[in-house]
Amino acid sequence: MRLSHCVLILQLFVLSEPYKILVYSPSYAQSINNFIGNLADSLVEAGHHVTSVIPIINPSLRDGSHKSKKIYVNQTEEVKKITDGLLIDEIDLFDFNDFNPLTYIPFGSAFCRWFNAQCKGVLDEPGLVEKLKNEKYDVMLLETFDTCGIALSHLIKPKSLITTAGSIPLQMQGGEFGLDPALSYNPNAMISHLDIHSFSSRLWNIYAHFLFTFTWHTSRTEDFSLPKCSILFKNSQEIASHAAFSLINSEPLIDFAAPTLNRVICIGGIGAKEPKKLNKDLDSVLSLRNKTILISFGSIVVANKLPDRVKENFLKVISRFPEVTFIWKYEKPEDDFAKAAFNSTPNLQILSWTPQNDLLADERLTAFITHGGMASTQETALRGKPGLFIPFFFDQPRNSGMMEKNGLGKVFSKYDLLDEPKLYAAVKDLLENESYYQNAVRIAAMIRKKPFSARDQLVKSVEFAAQFGSFSSLRPKIFDMNWIELYNADIFVVLLSMITFLCFGLFKLSAICVRGRIVKVKDD
Ligand SMILES: *[C@@H]1O[C@H](CO)[C@@H](O)[C@H](O)[C@H]1NC(C)=O
Ligand SMILES: *[C@@H]1O[C@H](CO)[C@@H](O)[C@H](O)[C@H]1NC(C)=O
Ligand SMILES: *[C@@H]1O[C@H](CO)[C@@H](O)[C@H](O)[C@H]1NC(C)=O
Asked: Quick check: 26 pLDDT over 60?
């Protein structure tokens, strides 16, 4: 009895042997840093040895991982130049129109030049590739929006590769994972409402798909001065296709249902931290009135840079709900607008930073007015709060549409922020429509009761890949086909030709018969 216990304990010990894991985490967007950082930290908590390689593309961002070992690759001179030229702080996201190819395509290619310049820095960093190769990692995890990690994985040859997407798999990422975009019913990232029965709506979805793909595809084909990179990058899809698993930041219980594969694993919500108690000040703010609404547009849309008219409309609407406290994440609480607003509007609290997750988790918080970033929408659903979703750019329209589809509130066009009565009506609806609150509570309970948590899925998949290395059974054949084969275009062309010939033949035959009859009738 005792002995078998010992064997059991020994087995457990052997089974939970730590693996060596490399996480490639290019620092270009805070939400991506947070997502990948949480993956790394979850794996550290599961007992593994995790190293994060962090190329600094945008130096103003915070690290996402707090527990893994880190190797930084500093911004190269060229990246610095591009960063200064991008004027990230100056981009007017209110006016920015995703559907205008004249502004969207140059925006995308500037980003891709930025990624690629830093990639050159990573691959050129003295000794880095060699060092990582010698470590013989069991698993390498990478986000594929920036393809540099794919190139690096090819050079350092980990035992197995896991690709990830910090949002839903965006177009070319979907391609790398082997997913069908299902354009007739799966909305593009830039689309909030897709009417499956409407010709124009589906056409618009196809347009968005191709515009998005074209805009961001440049990162995958751009030639480098380094010949080894240009060769690698043309093959990024081929290299990524051999990944053991693809982890995507989607919560299937709220997402649009679309075609998937066995190796694609949804770990949406992994970023949501356990909520902490609010500090004393915020705690008393939430007790001021029976209802409290949080307004926050995330880390990229800066509230103080919104058009004056929009800010004034918010203020007017807020003052029309004196029985509701509004907490507004506003980056410059010391500017003239904020000071005047503070004096004129007693039910408004302006804060330069808010613990969003902790606020959403507090039962006194009523609802959320948000830009609909992936993390924000997931946290909103997880905490059982309804929202008014005001997408500004990128994947925010689709995330917002996903929330409306689930009855968790409404999508509101950013351009309608210029229209005060419309904004008032939307906030009134958010406060008064009971169905949003019922749906929010139900969906939050469903997410909590899911049979497998996102964290379990992550850890178990990574350990499986670490143990067995790369395996091909989950890799679909789609990667080895050209589009003619994939869409059976050759078969359709042959069948169509046969039918056409047959019809033509029948037509000719009947024409001969008819002529024959006429001749016969004439003869009679
Ligand atoms: C990277 O930059 C940091 C600070 O900017 C500096 O302390 C560090 O030495 C740099 N590392 C390398 C390898 O240049
Ligand atoms: C706030 O809620 C309490 C308890 O439900 C209620 O007695 C009070 O009338 C409410 N106040 C307002 C202003 O609605
Ligand atoms: C509440 O919202 C739902 C979903 O949009 C809608 O069907 C319903 O009519 C609304 N109810 C009220 C009272 O406005």
From this structure: yes
- Quote the Cα angle for 310-314-317, to 5°: 135
pLDDT at 230: 44
Distance CA 422, CA 408 (A): 19
The reported pTM is 0.90
Give the residue-averaged pLDDT of 410-415. Answer: 97
| Pocket lining for ligand 2, CB < 6 angstroms | 290, 323
Instruction: Say if ligand 3 is within 6 A of residue 435 CB.
Output: yes
Average pLDDT value over all residues in the chain: 90
Q: Where are the domains positioned within the chain?
A: 17-271+454-479, 280-448, 486-523
SS (HEC) of 344-358: HCCCEEEECCCCHHH
Residue nearest to atom 12 of ligand 3 (CA): 433
> What is the chain's alpha carbon radius of gyration, rounded to the nearest angstrom?
27
The class of domain 280-448 in CATH terms is alpha beta
Among the bound ligands, the one closest to the CA of 74: 1
287 HSE (CA, 13 A, CB side): 7
Give the CATH number of domain 17-271+454-479. 3.40.50.2000
What's the CA-to-centroid distance between 406 and ligand 3, angstroms?
12
pLDDT at 125: 93
For residue 74, report the distance from its CA to the centre of ligand 1, in Å.
6
Q: Which atom of ligand 2 is nearest to the CA of 323?
A: 13
Residue 2 pLDDT:
58
